[in-house]
Design brief:
This protein has helices at 3-6, 9-12, 19-66, 111-114, 247-256; strands at 72-73, 90-96, 101-107, 118-120, 132-136, 154-159, 162-174, 189-196, 206-214, 223-224, 236-237. It has 263 residues and is of the alpha+beta class.
Length: 263
């Protein structure tokens, strides 16, 4: 059968499409335009709402910071356990300077929270506390820079009253059912979780997991003054060593010192 025989009669005759068919195409076209417009409006509304929620979380975090003591460097570990935060409550800020990640951390891992912030997974340790603190984020949103993270990168988590520094130890890809990555750890750890692959279209089939460990606070080293080295325990201080005297003073003292063996 030739190609012309398979075409409709109105096409073989060189006529225009029937009016009913043209109306059907017009309706389909109008429906597609309306659907696209509705999707655009929905996207714009979601973007505006997410921006407003993020701004509100940052503002609340700043107000909380003013009500606490000045930020100190945290060593993490055991201590008085704070009350569990409520969903939507801002907890702090996470920064990975090398890849340009700088986002607010909010309690909760639901879709509404992850639409505008990094979410703390309820049931895991809070940032800086002993155990495993898990944070989640969208691969095409707040955690998009994690595609460039690598072992050894520094992660800084700042809460209203402390700052904690972590170092990335490993990255891995797991299945969604492998929830063991959220289990408590013997070391004070931070676990970042997002979907994988990063450029996948549709629901991603894997999870990308970044594991970091807290860097302990380094205590100041005592410095012993040279003039008091003979006395046990004397001259210890937690400041830097004293600066050397100016050369002019040294030369003057040498000139005033009498020569050995002179009469």
């Amino acid at each position: 059968m030739s190609g012309s025989a398979r075409r409709p009669a109105w096409r073989r005759a060189g006529c225009r499409a029937p009016a009913r068919f043209r109306r059907l195409l017009k309706g389909v076209e109008s429906g597609l335009v309306a659907t696209g417009g509705a999707c655009l409006v929905w996207w714009a509304a979601e973007t505006v709402a997410a921006g407003a929620a993020a701004a509100s979380a940052r503002s609340r975090l700043d107000r909380m910071a003013t009500l606490h003591d000045p930020v100190r460097t945290g060593a993490g570990g055991e201590g008085e356990r704070p009350p569990a935060p409520s969903v939507g409550e801002p907890l702090g800020r996470i920064e990975v300077p090398r890849i340009g990640l700088n986002e607010v951390i909010v309690e909760g891992s639901d879709d509404l929270t992850l639409a505008f912030a990094v979410g703390h997974v309820p049931g895991t340790s809070l940032p800086g506390a002993a155990g495993n603190s898990a944070l989640a984020g969208h691969r095409d949103g707040v955690f998009a820079p994690l595609a460039r993270v690598r072992s050894g990168d520094a992660i800084v988590v700042t809460t209203p009253n402390a700052r904690f520094r972590y170092l990335v130890r490993s990255t891995r890809v797991v299945r969604p059912a492998e929830t063991w990555v959220l289990d408590p750890t013997p070391r004070t750890s931070l676990t970042l979780v997002t979907c994988y692959p990063f450029r996948y279209v549709g629901p991603a089939p894997r999870r990308y997991v970044v594991r970091a460990e807290l860097v302990p606070e380094q205590p100041a080293r005592p410095v012993r003054r040279e003039s008091e080295q003979g006395r046990p325990g004397a001259g210890l201080q937690l400041t830097s060593a004293p600066a050397a005297p100016p050369a002019s003073r040294v030369s003057a003292s040498v000139r005033r010192r009498p020569a050995s063996g002179s009469s």
